[in-house]
């Protein structure tokens, strides 16, 4: 069947500063992820980390030409706060660092690729973290606002979409609640204080954006879990889903879009002694400064069921006290990343955004499939034949188009990533790019089959795929 995308539909890609740039000219100005890497490089796949990353800092100009060849109509980059600012307390600009972003943004505009800026993809400067802590500190919140204003002043008129944060739940969750990443803490109250601080910082930056009369839109990029219960007939499973939804969907969605935290979440946090500290006047800032547009990152759904085991009494609180992850038999899985592939979740999320969040304007800001050992899919010309990735994109677009036909206000679909990239721990094990990064050959770039396909999709705005009924037979 033939599918058509609207002519003005944004087809692009996303990347981030620490996953692309490398440390040239950083002179030890580490950010939070650099710190995570330096604390335990041996935990990262083959010890590969942000040191060189994609070397985008040096290769940005040829890379932008290559982005054009893969048909990107937009690219989301992040600005590395630790590179852009010189003196964090006064937010004076590091001219050399800022010049790099000027060059990138100017060339993107000249070549006809719309730049989108994300202010923070976890690049909190390390020295600030050492001195004040993270977003649990109101001082950090205010320094972040100062930095954001400098970015707005410099790029006003050159950039149409500004995003405050990328996946602001990830660092509090993985570093401070689950203990998976450095500094390996399991302190839910601290994680909630970070979450609250990021929500307040988002609102303050939205307020500054409006006060400064910046052109374009301001949004936040979230990764809310699309949650399914094992069975809607089982009361424990339903309850499990409700609690997971409070933490992993509503915690950011509600305050950033509706201006308010869900009462059930606040009640639960108080009951579990994990309530964050707040000031009434800050709640008013959150209420009055909601986002214009939502960025939605989606990789896999979350399936839950009722908790079968009682957690030990002396354990510090974690949301999984109320639910367990459900490993659904027969689910389709990406065996490399271990993540379920369930494109219908995009449709379900779209309908929820439409019905519960006043049909706010939104776009998919990350969607992708990480695959290991892609060299084995090379043809005789050395081009990776990643038909699995093309199918992955098509099946997600099919469900998105269905949602749009039913009134969802979705404006675009951005893939993760345009070029293979590093990430914490898995670093370049699973490859996501439309373009291959050849580590053995001085990080040479080579367009994959999906890159040529994406270019065709952007030019023609049509593609062929099975119908939803055929896919789910
Ligand atoms: C998203 C992040 O959560 O997932 C990216 O915004 C990250 O930074 C991506 O790279 C894929 O995750 P991973 O661990 O498979 O690289």
UniProtKB/TrEMBL annotation:
Q: Which InterPro entries match?
A: GH (IPR017853), Glyco_hydro_1 (IPR001360)
Organism lineage reads as: Bacteria, Bacillati, Bacillota, Clostridia, Eubacteriales
Q: TM segments?
A: none
Query: What Gene3D superfamilies does the record point to?
Result: Glycosidases
Q: Describe the family membership recorded for this protein in Swiss-Prot or TrEMBL.
A: Belongs to the glycosyl hydrolase 1 family.
Pfam short name (any one): Glyco_hydro_1
**Enzyme Commission numbers on file:** 3.2.1.86
| Lineage top rank: taxon | Bacteria
What protein name is recorded for this chain? 6-phospho-beta-glucosidase GmuD
